[in-house]
Please model this.
Amino acid sequence: MDLNTITVPSHLLICPDEVLLQVLENLDHRAVLACQAACHRLKNITNAVSLQYTVELAACGMVDGMRCQETLSLSERLERLRQYDAAWRQLKWSDCTLLPHLTNDRVVIHVGAYKFGIFSKRNVVQELPSKLRGLREEHYSCQSMRRIKVDSSQGLVVYIETPAFDPLGGVQYNLRSLPSGEPHPRAANLGIIKPSAWHKDHIVDIRGEYLLEFLQFGETGRYIVRNWTTGLVEMQKEMKFIVNGSSCRFLDDNYIFLDSFPTNSHFLSVDQRHESFHVLPFRRCEGSTSGTVHDTAVHFLLPAAVMNNELSFYMTTFSTGSGTAPMTPVHFYRDPDDHLISTSIRVRDDEAHTSRNYHFDIPAQTFTSYMQHNLATGQTVVPWEAWGPHGTRVIEEPEFQESVCGMRRCLYRQSDEGTILRVLDYHPRRVARALARRQDGDGIVVEHGAHIEAGHTGGDPLSTTLPCLVTETHIPHILGNNGGEIVLCEDGVVFTERRREVWEGYSNVLAYTI
Amino acid sequence: MPTIVSVDDSTVPGEGSSRLLLLVSSDNKHIVVEEDIMSRSRFISKQVEGFEATSQRHAILLPFSSFVLNKVIEYCSHYRGYYLLEDDPDAAPPGRSPVREWDQEFLDVDRNMLLRIIKAAHYLEIKSLVGSCARAIADMIRGKTTEEMREILGVENDFTPEEEHSPSSKCTG
Model:
């Protein structure tokens, strides 16, 4: 008898618990939850701290940070994650830090950092502090800059420097390490990339190893995707009649998102207009390092109510996606694939001399999923009915000011006692969890987006179904007559209070962080 | 019944001065293997230390078939002389094991075999192999529903209907 040919039915439960745990530790949260529901023994194993951490990390919309020697144990990290999540649910900031600034200078806040200038000759970049994520207030100074972008999960700051007046546009991108200000260790050419001199304006976005540049000259815009670790250009595309490339960002690891809006739309028929979002792949075919990028763009058309009317104002705010290779020893990061695209549109009715503001909140994954489906079926134009009603939330809003970070958007308005801050959270897992728990005090669950009568615009009514969590809190400061701002960050909000008597300058810059 | 077999201390020509071990599988196959190939196994290393303490060498009985044992020996032979962090008893546990291409090809076997290899690797305390198998099994069940997972792993549903509908087991992913 040859034993080699006998197949004794074997199953996983012949293995001891520690082996099973090791298997499950390779899985993502979905598979862990599926195992949990399989049988008692697997359910008991999923109670292990490592697996609870995986599941709760996903439920909070976070991803794991770098493994480093000096950090906390897994159970301490889990504890911090729970505190972090609870603090966001109740908008309870554990810390209010007065950030240093000069009263006569402008402050620019980007997701994980802020910069302030000293009489515009030198800038100081400072990382925003967070107790729960172990971020200290590191700062350093640099040359004057025009723009700054931060990817805190990679410890990367990209800023555009303007060293001296140069008619050919002598600017350069500086790639620095966020905490130290030294050239970033993974950046090409000592952390400096000189883009083409052909430009008028720059927009930069970061995603993993890629840097997106938008250069404008006249009415033509050029989009360039470059690998910042090697300096090589991955994609380059020109588009005509671009009025403002204010919204070109990475959508995910493969696509960029544009809401380019042509300057000459008055002269074009409706079909030729570009009042739509474009999603464009930027990576070369898998496995090849040369050759062109397959460049089928998918156009997501906006609702008829908006399309048939003149858009007088059009602005898209993005939360920035971040990479997945963290440099600083922080324990968890916002999931880079969960980010929100937030667009406001003002529709003007010339006859009635009125206008209305519409606000579209769209998860980036909505585009990703519809785009994959449409690329597979060869359809490159997606009408609003196919993606909007289920994938977005449209609200008609008063003049709120707003800020976006991750899947959260915050709105704020002044009251006599201070500032009322409202945070809308669209994260699907956080919303699902709140619905499952039905906990009071966790904020109100909005089950459906508002139904908006858009009859006055001559178009169809807009109604959408994307749920979100709404939480309100009160900040005991007033932004000031000259309009300060509140910027939503990964660990809280930064409040800039303007001085009443001076147009430029701040009386306070406060970070309410976790 | 343990069979005491005296193993000749002679060296294998051209292969250095490694001594030989006699391994006996559950289907009673006798397999002779060089000691340093199997030194990756903590279990075997401890046995060898025992031999040295008592100056008596005997066959090592293993509770799995020769088919599985040969596979494990193939793995150990491939990594003979290589340092793998997971197998270093003094190194800190590295968490998830790294992806090794050779391992992926090596473990491209049927489900039953994979489960038997991981069990054998665990018995022999070869951490790198346990890690690679764990990764391979995880790849098999990733993206599957609970029902499919039960089938793949040969797991019985032992929940009562009430337990099954409790909110804690709901997947919200």
